[in-house]
Amino acid sequence: MDPARDGRWSNEPTVALNPVGQPEPPTVRYDPVNAPTVRLPVVPGPQVVSDAPVVEETAPPPSPGDDESTGTVVRNSSTMAILSLISRGTGFIRAAAISAAIGGAVVGDDYTLANNLPNQIYELLLGGVLASVLIPTLVRARKEEPDRGEAYAQRLLTLAVVTLGAATLIVVLAAPLITAIYTLGNDRVTADDRDLITFLAYLLLPEIFFYGLAGIFAAILNVRGHFAAPMWTPILNNVVIIATAGAFMLVRGSGLPTPETITVPQILVLGIGTTLGIVIQALGLWPAMRKTGFRWKWRFDFRKLHLRELGRLGAWMLLYVAVNQIGITVVMSLAKNNQVRGGDGPIIFNNAFLIFMMAHGIVAVSVITAMMPRISSAAADGRFGDVTDQLSQATRLASVILIPAAAIYVVLGQPLAVTLFDWGEYGYDAALATGWVVSAAGLGLVPFALSQMQTSVFYAMRDTRTPALVNIGGVAIRLLLDVAFYFLLPIAAVTASLMVGTALSFVAALLLGYWLLRTRLGRLGLARVADTLLRLTAAAAVGGALAFAASWAIARVMDPGKLLGVVQLLVGSAVLLAAYAALALVLRVPEVRQFATLIKSKLGR
């Protein structure tokens, strides 16, 4: 793609607040529109007691140094990665369909803001606590309780249903107040905008309840060694949202509605269809729950949940999440104001981050999910040497895929964005602008994923304080950089620079996290990790240079447009990945050979 932009994104005011661009607790959180898949808890924790049938527990984790252990993790994470890839693929179709249906003007911004409200509120209520507190306690209960945590899980689910139900009802009733808070101080948001956001909020805020159910269901399944269902049920949500986009196009007719002209049936289609997606996604986990032997039973003896301890740990997690929300709000405000000045705005940033999260969700989350039962078990038993070995292994395995993915983002960001988003009302110019932000996002992909692994280790050791403090430092660095970029750089460069600030904050958090873990656990096997990362980076750099040359050559013989982007992406990716794989094998990176062996075995079946 020619580096020069031919056009400009819409100058309509944007009021989108999407919870992206911040390091979040290593969960797989459900985000039915702006993220392609549900983010589910990955740090397994203890469960508790019950009269229900005892379910056979997964085998104890083998020694981290065993080849069998590595092979098991590779197989488990590969299976989850395949499911996540399918889910994320349909997620991009969903995102493209919604973008094509509602466009990137004011109605699109209002929908984005309204759909982010349940996301952010859920994170504040429960999302982060799932990863940091509840899941580790589930693991411990499963190890220690006579019924292997069945009753504990039932109590936890009962408490979640009661508290989430009450909280969701209160939040829905407070929709006008919430809308007023999120649009406070923005004089470019009209009364019609606020009315539309509030109407959509009434329809979308019930998602909070089903986010919570899905998170608890996924936590219980992960602790019991069942990882597949939480990875494929987002496909159900994606299909519903795609159908919703199609239905909206039918009731919309020709031309995009504005906040002044949009009709009640059109709003109902968007709101009910979006909420229905997460409802089906959450309920789709129930058959898998039944298959594990879990049976629903109301249990109101909440004292046995040790709520005081959960509250102590959860308080730091709430601080973590609150700091994230502050960072998100400030960055989205900067992006919105940049759009008002004539630059690119929040939707550009959000869609780029959607692409960024694809690789993280497919690779890093899959590896973390497969390995965290072992890390949690080792931490619970005081085997901290095994904890560091598992972290080293997870880092090296995930980097095999993340490093070339980062190279693709940096070198082929524009062709990738044009291929995915140049549809309908979104347009070619907006897709080009998105591509610049994708290239900037590639710089932060590996640091983000590795910092999330570190956070998982802290949570496995039942330490929520350290990640919260690290996050405060990371968010502070990010905001300082982003504010400086906003005022010092040209308007056309601001949105991409916001992603650069995000990437640099991930690097800072990663370095600080490693220092703190080394202080806590001693040697982390960094020499081996650094050796692997350097070899992989060298291979990816050569592949990236060749891909850039191929993309440049193609641009010299084809006219600008979607076809050019598709050809550049296909040819450039093939060149990059082929060169990367060949050089990584020549450099004798053991983890690459493990993946190659696994692929050969799969193809040989």
Helices and strands, with pairings:
Elements (H helix, E strand, L loop, with lengths): L66 H36 L3 H39 L5 H24 L1 H8 L8 H14 L2 H17 L4 H5 L1 H19 L11 H20 L2 H6 L15 H34 L5 H35 L3 H38 L6 H15 L2 H16 L4 H24 L5 H28 L4 H32 L4 H25 L3 H14 L2
Task: Describe the structure in your own words.
Helices cover 74% and strands 0% of the residues. The protein is mainly alpha-helical. It has one domain (67-603). The longest helix has 39 residues, at 106-144.
Q: What would the principal axes of the Cα set say about the shape?
A: globular
DSSP helix fraction? over 70%
Count of helical regions: 20
Strand tally: 0
Gyration radius over CA: 23 Å
Number of separate domains? 1
**Unreliable segments (pLDDT under 50, ≥5 consecutive)?**
2-66
Write the H/E string, N to C: HHHHHHHHHHHHHHHHHHHH
Pfam families: MurJ (PF03023)
Region (Disordered): 1-33
Membrane topology: Multi-pass membrane protein
GO cellular component, one term: plasma membrane
